[in-house]
Amino acid sequence: MLGFIARRLLATIPVLLIVAVLVFLMLRLAPGDPAAILAGDAASTEQIARIRTNLGLDRPIVVQFGIWVGNMLSGDLGESFYYKMKVAKLIGQRLEPTLALATLTILFAVVVSVPLGVVAAWRFGGWFDRVLMGFSVLGFSVPVFVLAYILIYIVSLKLGLLPVQGYQRIADGFWPFFRHLILPSVTLSVIYIALIARVTRASVLEALGEDYIRTARAKGLPEFRVLVRHGLANAAVPIVTVIGIGIALLIGGVVVTESVYAIPGLGRLTVDAVLARDFPTIQGVILFFSFVYVLLNLLIDLSYVFLDPRIRY
Amino acid sequence: MRKLIALLAFTANLVTPGVAQAQDSKVLRIVPHSNLAILDPIWTTAYMSRNHGYMIYDTLFGTDENNVVKPQMVDTWTVSPDKKVWNFKLRSGLAFHDGKAVTGEDVVASLNRWGKRDAMGVALMGFIEKLEASGADSFRMTLKEPCGFVLEALGKPSSNVPFIMQKRIAETDAFKQIEEHIGSGPYIFVREEFKPGDKAVYVRNGKYVPRKEAPSGSTGGKQVFVERVEWNLALRDAQAQVNALANGEIDILEQPSFPLIPGLKANPDIVVYSYSPVLLQFMARFNHLNKPFDNPKVRQAVLASFSQEPFLQAQVGVKDLYRTCASMFTCGTPYASAAGSDIQSKSNMKKAQELLKASGYDGTAIVIMKPTDLTTIDKLPEVAAQLMRQAGFKVDLQAMDWQTLVGRRAKKDPIDKGGWHMFLTAWQGPDIWNPIVNPTLDTRGEASGWFGWGKDDKIPELKALFMRETDDGKRKQLAEAIQTRAFEVATHAPLGEFDAPLAARKNITGHFRGTGNFYWNVKKN
Fold first, then answer.
1. In which band, very low, low, confident or very high, does the pLDDT at A253 lie, cut at 50, 70 and 90?
2. Is residue B389 classed as helix, strand or coil in its secondary structure?
3. Which uninterrupted H or E stretch holds B285?
4. Are the C-beta atoms of residues B156 and B162 closer than 8 Å to each other?
5. In this complex, do B16 and A259 lie within 8 Å of one another by their Cβ atoms?
6. Which residues touch A237 (CB under 8 Å, ≥6 apart)?
7. How far is Cα B52 from Cα A84, in angstroms, rounded to an integer?
8. Average pLDDT for residues A23-39, to the nearest whole number?
9. pTM over 0.90
10. Is residue B305 classed as helix, strand or coil in its secondary structure?
11. Cα–Cα distance measured from residue A294 to residue A17, given in angstroms and rounded to the nearest whole number
12. Alpha helices in B138-179 (DSSP H)
């Protein structure tokens, strides 16, 4: 097991290196000039050229790449062109809102979707199953921003229950923190509720057709126990896989939600960095996302051992 | 359910004083027109950096809402009979946020740095023989020859504004950003609370001594009635901004999107202000380096086809927010006139077709860069393309995001190597209101400071005369001559003016008209 973990961790190095090279090259090949953006609208071409020199953007791409990789190896993600701050510090500042939003969203999604999926499988073909399947199609189809505006209109503007926008740090109190995250996480969780509920339904349905379920029922076990202890437990591997991938997607995919609800997280930072052609920040954030993605996949793989004793590494 | 949430909210407010504090009526919450990233208003011309500058720095002179230059940090000043020696005395009580007095040396260092970056500053420095501190609270400017825009330059209200910084900070290389942000203005910047893309915080400078005069533009008494100003930099979605204002979560929205303005006006809790005495101007800029726009006759044909009304209707739409303006200098300001504008204002499509035919245009496709993400100007290129097609041009409308456009417009390359023919943009009034600041009138060819690189020898000659002239009447005549020549050689096409109003909650009072977003004298009732 330890050997497997070590091998998987070592495997992240080439993955991150490939990501680094691709991101670096794609950014350099993309149109747009960070120096022109920084200088402002009325800046002269000479001023832009001087800023470009100061940023080191007039050096050959190979030299720029060498410097960046060198800095990265010493743990330095570089300094933002746009904000004149260390990229690591910028990521640190934006991590809490994104993590909080992702955690709350996935918690909400799991708490709602898994029971729904189990019940739908249990009542396969019935009205509940049909309603849930209809809802899941809707959940997949409605764009996040449309749902966000509808919820804001009803819950915030008409009923005045929750704030329209913003984020409060958890250090400023749990309720203000939670209150600001209710609408964003409900909005974002709809698509995951639809996804996880469908997968749960399908997996549990498959498990319910197995011989051991018939045996459990023949032994006279209560139906709830049959469903949870035998059905859900044996259907856990695909469900956990979907949840894990969902978390990874969430961390990188909160851009629209963060924009509509004005949450200063990593998604918003990425958008701003792309718009400003802030190369060091884009590179740093994408590398960070890649690392999180690789790590989550590893955790998902490890969880299989605990969920299914037949799996060995 | 509603009662339960209300109860929870009430309880939470009792146990979390931070929330109650945040709801303090002494905190002004503003959504600015853009993100604040660069904190050095001399290093960049970005308007957000300029507005940040106005919060924390003070200026020697300012420009009032009638475009008259008036003293701000300066108390008195004298000019020698030969108009070459200017002595300035600072008013008493001026101090930086760290408690140190503002001195003549601070002023000299600040002007020297500004004079390396700003177009008007560079022009002024060309006239200065010596700039020195003549005492602890005074400074002297000795000119090589008389110059007609000394006060205009020192009271320049828009980017780059000659803000006064401490000497040790102002001595930073003009091409490197300053690291400390200590001014002597009405607010103090809270560096520890600044989170780029999230929020910027300013607190009242209790030691600031305002002038006695009423505030007007960037002049007069800068009274501060709130303890704290928070700029919400995270709220960038246009609809979400309006929702937050309607819900009372923010107090001021600097630049609501045009289509949302009628809805805001209909809300009894919100007031929509026209805060600027001068409007913004749309313009189309030609690249004079690339064929066929190296030919003035082709550019004139474009001018003739560009009636302003279709651009204004398409882009702004709300009738009372725009007006046509024949002047290349902002309408309603001293140098505005219709001189030479007949080629555009009295023209029509038939005339444009005739001009194009006479120009020998060879059918080259005109590359117009269209920014898809800037809602204040994104419709202009479509209108330009349609009008030009009607005139007989072949048009290649290329869509891109604004920052791609910003990078590409700086390229002098030919079309087949990524070059361009035309882009359309908008300027705030003070940035184009006279021949020195208006960047489109720098016609030194490839040596020109601004994109498009127009080439004409007569305009620089007239500009030199304008700079030296000290008589207001003659300066106005020279401005007219410059504009007439600019229309003759078709440096660019002015496309009319528009207002970008500000929206605020009804309990916010004290706003006045100015050339920027100024947050002094504002009360939260």
1. low
2. helix
3. strand B280-286
4. yes
5. no
6. A203, A304, A307, A308
7. 16
8. 81
9. no
10. helix
11. 13
12. 150-154, 167-170
